[in-house]
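Retro notes
What went well: the complex prediction finally ran end to end.
Inputs used:
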Amino acid sequence: MSDDDEMVGYKQQPGKLPFARPGSGGSEKFSELRDESRIPESQGGTLAQPQGANRHDSLITGAAIGRRTPMVDSRWKVMGQAKYGDDIRLPGELFGRILRSPHHYARIRSIDTSAAEALPGVVAVSTGSEAPACFGVLPVTKDEHAMAQEKVRHVGDLVACVAAEDELTALEALRLIEVDYEVLDAVHDMRDGLKDAEEPIHDRGKYHIGDSNVQKRVFQEFGDISGMRDSAVATHTSDWYFAGANHGFTEPHAVAAHWEPNGRLTLYTPQQVPHYVHRALADVLDIPMHQINVYRTAVGGGFGGKSDPFPHEMCAAILARKSGRPVRITFDRDEVFYVNRGRHPSRLGMVIHADSQGRLCGMETDALLDGGAFASFGHVTTYYNGVLHTAPYEIGGFHYTGTRVWTNKPASGAMRGHGAVNSRCAVEVGIDDVCEQLSVDPIDFRLANLLPPMSRTITGFRITSIGMRECLERVRRASDWDDRFRKLPLGHGLGIGCGFFISGSALPIHWEPNKFPHATVHLKVDMDGGVTVHTGAAEIGQGSDTVVALAVAEVLGLPLDMIRIRSRESDTSPVDLGSYSSRVTFMNCNAAISAAMEIRQELLDATSMITGAPTERLVIGDRRIFSKDDPAVGVSYLEALQKAQEDRGALASSGAYRTPPMGRTHKGAAAGLAPAYSFSAYVAEVKVDVETGQTSVLKVWAAHDCGKALNPLAVEGQMIGSIHMGMGQVLSEEMRYGRSGNLLNADLLDYKIPTVHEMPEVTPIIVESNDPEGPFGAKEAGEGPLLPILPAICNAVYDAIGIRIHELPLAPALVHREIEKRCKELGIDDPLDLPSPDLEHSPLHHVLRERADEHSVRDLERKLDGERDQYHNGALFGLDATIPADEQDDSWTAVVLPDEQYLESPRLAGSAWLHVERRHQGGDA
Amino acid sequence: MRMPPFELHLPESLDSAMTIAGELADEDCDFDWIAGGTDLLPNYKWHLNSKPHVISLAKVSELSTLEPTHIGAMVRLQALATSDSCHPLLRQTSGTIASVMIRRSGTVGGNICLDTRCFWFNQGEEWRRSIDWCIKCDCGTGADCRVISHQNELCVATYQADLAASLLALDATIHLASPDGSRSLPLAEFFQEDGITRNVLKDGEMVTHLTLPDDAEDWQGDYQKLRLRESWDFPEAGIAAAWKIDGDGNLDGLRVASTALESIPRLHQELADEAREGWAGVESVNSLAVAVQKAVKPVNNTWFPPSYRKKMVRVLTRRALAPLERVEAAN
């Protein structure tokens, strides 16, 4: 603009400098040329798309996704500036401590807090009578309270809480609280939870199942149930025991509550699911939600263990209200174990049938889950233990009985790979065994039994993209499988395991799917050009801030330093359901893309106005918007933005995501439904010291199908971290309960998380199957990668020593005992003389190879064919692929209630169905 | 997690440490010595037998001497693990203790005087209240032992220090000081089979240093440690062996010691002597391994089950003695 230009509007003061000419923004001064190798073929670029085009292709600018990007909050963390739960400091704050039950199960006769209240320095003492409202993460199973009402249900259950000027005084006050308990008979063994009890741990009134401690039971029968047993030529049967595991995150729970001068409560807490805390606080405190601001601090690891609304969060708020001062509660590590919500201790019966064609003609699973004292996510866990192994294989029959019982232990809940981990391990080990019986290679077997893309599982889940085949093929090559499997010497083994997991639960926890989106993202773009993203997705270290920033940056063609994420406070963030079920990338990025598309359109329109080029011919490059036809015709991002902001100032937009309608209609059909699923295959190489029973993992080749790696660095990090975590559960981690029923290892010395010395060399392999509905084709990578490591190691241990062990962790003493037993059976003195398993291929091997080759062609054709027919599970068994099996063949059933015949000899968990719900018991209920 | 309050004393010489200890004794005040604190402080945080006074040896420089046959009590375990001048067996053994960070703090004296450990003892205060306490920290209740109940006499908490086995195998002498004077005794006589008293230290007495015999450098050895993880974990069983080979390449001396299997580390001298006399290579290795296995009685109070730990003693002993499989007895 020269000085002679005619000014519109008011007259400029003499000597006043005009605004600088808008540039491109970002910390790099000049925009880069568009990198055609990052632009997909479908848009005229050179990026190959073997899995076809994606609906988001036209939004790709090459600015952000697909690059190895350090987390946007990593500098705060490595420089010690991130504020975690216990880093919050508020003026005049008090220290809160919690009095916990010393008994497994007891009735509280009375609580006398007078001595504690009289102690100098004590400001407030509170007990359960002050907070009678119940809460719980799932609306159907609200069975928790801020503090015990009439009963305590496990050692460590909350009884009372104290706020004092300092921590020592608070601790001293706890000692002064006198509680009179009447000790009740406790349930420690999950099998006892199936029985009628004099005093069940909870009372669900007319919905209570008999007089037992059964919290939830599931029965499902799909497919050709009688046929699967008749046509089986190989059957694997096993009874597993899985010890409970804790998340073992670094940061213990810590919370600060502050009733601010305006009368509103701000709760600072490291939460994965702040929205449910928000709801629960409103219930417990009996105030409307708008009076509460939930502030999510930096989260020092969650893994599912920070996704329930917690009683201590309620306690902090109650104490703060009572004392009129901020109250902070930070857990000691043993308290973390008392609140737990870790992986359920489980007893799993697994039966796998294969027929003469090497097809998986049936799976029968019976899962008894030890839920501990509260329901938590258990309702869902009970379904997941069954329904999440109905893929990736096409199966002839699926029989599942699952039961979760209350016991007097710290509550189990959701933990990375929620509900799928243990049963997946049992399935994959079972398949390995069936292959052993059939004398075929387990990778060939799997390749010949996969569901194709765009198909339906036996229970009606909608499979979209599936990269399972590529995962298997790539780990096979990378691990030199064909030359080494079953050929290694004694004590040295190779094993395969696969995984399948939801990429975001389609059913929101609040169960109002038709009334509210899963995720909402707001964008604000002001004159500086920076984009502020308001999202409620909880950054828990998994990189949710980063991935949302990447999605916005990609669409707008901006460098990451122009995107700032505001995801902390419920006051400023639109409601998001939180970081659970691996939903953030899929749901939040989809919402973010929608929001960014609005801004993008406004920028294109503005550019069109400035340049005269038609909007549909414009593309966005690095901070520059220009015409496809003539790149010289274009403007910088900031110029376009200023134009778009004329007369209205900051741009704002909103995007939301909701899953499409899907699934069948039977009871429980929604459990396990997801808009997409992730797949993975790992090969593990182990060494077993046959004299000591000690197992070490040497190498892992890990292939995970995440649809599209928006940030390959983060995906690989998730895979390596998952391997570490899963390996802990296989080799060493367990919550061990002693003779007295007490948890023996509520500390990180004796809760044995593998150290860096135990960590194998990992080769992460990213497989991109291009999901049609995922953001730019992406799916989850946070939980699925954990699943395969357990069976891969178990199967490798079998390859090393020829013994199947159906118990986790594979503690040295356990492995040693099994080796001794086998030596005795074989009449061998020295375990070094044990035979190592080998493999001589049977004729079935060729059948499988041929079928795998055919399916490989079928799969790619289906993926790329937009006009494809329906494919329902059952086609492999000769049924019409286009119709659900049970609608065309009477021998294929879909049943969710046991019949009398089953109840004559139910399996362990299935025996829960012998109880009758009180409301169905007749007159006296 | 907060420690109970205590008064910290920071003497700068051994003499003044002794003076403070004497004064506290005169006033009838209980106290603990603290060196690296890696054992004591976690126990204090769990309110395990904490005392109102703590005397720190951090500034007592004369306890840090490290020479081939003289090891000061305040020598850091990491210094021992990386030292060129100390006996290779001690270097190897200390390199297996806990983790590098803990070894940088932890000391030789602290490791030797390590408190015994037990599932029923190494727990938080609320936890122990929920089992009505135990004999090792009964909080005035006269509680029974929770591992072997109805005996109410002996604490069977396990002594889990690695160094003890190797120092026993090298025939170390331990040197003690107290306000009443100093004394020295063979390390094997220092320990007591009682999870509470643990050793012969009297009130106010402390370890100043350990010495090895002058011929220590003629002895070779090996330490085998059973544990779940290659870092952090206390030994679930530890076997140290040391031997001397004469000029003809024959076995001239042999010692085997065990730790982490009972309340006391043991030197199995009689078994070793018996084996050495008619040493017959592999055969002797095997029979000595069986004999050591029979000589120890682990109880159920650590991570691995006692039956497994006991079985592993044979494997560990065999592995420790593996270099002697082709050696013959000296004439």
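What we learned: The radius of gyration of chain B is 20 Å.
What to try next: split runs per interface for comparison.
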